[in-house]
Amino acid sequence: MKLANLSRSLLRSAAVAVVALGMAGCATTPGSSEADVTVSDPLEIPNRFVFAVNETADILLIRPATEVYVGVVPDPLRQAVHNFIQNLLGPLYIANNLLQGDFDGAQVATGRFMTNTILGIGGLADVATEAGIGDRPEDFGQTLGVWGVGPGPYVVLPFLGPSNVRDTLGYGVDTLADPFRIGTNAAGADNAMYGRTAAAGLDRRSQLLREIDDLRKNSLDFYATARSLYAQQRRAAIANDIAPATPDFPDFDEPAKK
């Protein structure tokens, strides 16, 4: 029971971290600026409230936990965790590439998943990248976008952060279709799902410590900045301009030393 309670606690903590994970989807694209993207935000008042709650949870809980994770867990082990988590998403990447009619992308995603699963010890090692097999991450929100479905109003989800109506639906479909979730549920191994969620939250947040700090410090309106960057990133991801798993944050100059 203690292990189950610990796992559920980690799950809740990691879920809150996804406010930062939502920021992981905030990326700029070449030649774009905040003014380039018009975002429908009729729910701005409740969105700002949820955003503030998510921010508070991240500042008080998730960021400190992530700093402990980075300080305690060695780099090679953190990289192995990252590789393993990404490899678990391989079947979803394959399926969404197929649904989008991108058969080349599906072939690449399949080759990457098989290579890392077989030769990379279940995905702990990223052998595919070393072999020159690129990453083709696609989610169902992108698939809907390729099919011509518009983003709909912008929403900020509790724990999950920046989104829109289309991407919220896409997230739900990907969650239901996730083979790992289906397998753990069938086996009654809920703790494994909780553990993956916690590990994924810490993994993604650990890669964005400086970037999110810079955005908070340099944005006149952090909510508006997050909203604009999210819209830009999703537009670019649907057009396959950038890979959503590797966001490019704005670069801020270091303050001059006195």
UniProtKB/TrEMBL annotation:
An example Gene Ontology CC term for this record: ribosome
Keyword set includes Ribosomal protein: yes
Superkingdom, natural source: Bacteria
Extent of the signal sequence: 1-35
Single GO BP term: intermembrane phospholipid transfer
Pfam families per the UniProt record, alphabetical: MlaA
Keyword Transferase: no
Keyword annotations of the record: Lipoprotein, Ribonucleoprotein, Ribosomal protein, Signal
InterPro entries tied to this protein: MlaA
Protein family per UniProt: Belongs to the MlaA family.
This protein's name: VacJ family lipoprotein
